[in-house]
Structure formats: structure tokens, C-alpha cells
Amino acid sequence: AKAIWISTIVCSLLSIPWILFCGLPIKLSLSGKLVIALSYYGLTGLSIAIRAGQPAIIIVLLIVSAYVLNQKNFRFLSGLILGLALSKFTLAVPLMVYLAYRKQWFTLIISLGVQFIGLLGLVFLVNGSLPLIITNYHDHLTRLAAADRINLLHISGYFPHTADEFMAIGLVLTTVLFG
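RESULT FIELD:
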């Protein structure tokens, strides 16, 4: 099972830049694509993520795929894929902000619908109640939002953590990355 999981992560990692190239507004030469892809593959954090079995790489693949499909006007499929990526919402929120900025409401509604269907499936699987699960999610998010400077040994401990600072940074990065 571990070998299958690591293989899935490596395949996802290898395909991310090539899928992203399909959605760029400019066309790069093959040598330009190779330089960018090889630079991406050489990032130290990626080897650590592979060895740790981080699902974030698969989520990034889903986000990149949703972005490219949205650029190619496959809005429904983009929404489905983004809905899956929203399972790790901290990575998917910048694309949602971009889509809202571009007024891609159909894609956003589909993605939120996928998450809602997943939530209903969770309720069914655990034989629980929807209000209880929503309350638990709300409590968890409240605790996360209240956390300040968690683990200063981790690099993220040195970045702003308030909701306003986080939203400002996310908006700036989204605007810079996606135009």
C-alpha cells in the first residue's frame, strides 16, 4: 500500500508543471518548460513531502488541474476537481478567490456542492447528525483561527497568522500568480 501511495504522489509531482503549462497564457519553448520543470523537481521540500507521504502534492495536482480546466472552459469538470481539492481547503482557497475575482460562479458552486455531498456522505458513514458534524468543524476552525505563532521552530511560525493578515497575503499572492 505504501509503494502505491508513494507512486501516486511521485506521478502527481511529475505531472504538475506539465499540466500547468497547458493553462498558461503564453507558450514556452520545450527548453523553457524543461528548465522550469526541473527547477520545480529539484525543490528540497518536494523530496521531503514524497518521503513523508504528504497528500498535499495530490491536492496541488487537483488545484492545477482545476485551474487549467477552468481556463479551457471545462467549468463543470473544473468544479468537480476543485471540490475534491477543497478537502485541504488551506491550499485550495487561493484558487477559489481567483475564481470569485473572475466571477466563475458556476465552478465555485459545483466545487462547494461536491464538498457538501462529501459532508453528507460523512454523516451517513459515521451515522451521525449533520448539525453535530458542522458544529465540530466550526469548533475546529475556531481553534485554528485562534492559534497564534504555533511552533516557532517551523518556518510558518514567522509569518503573519491573523485572519486579516492571512487574507491580505492570499489576495496579493493570488493576484500576482493568476493576474
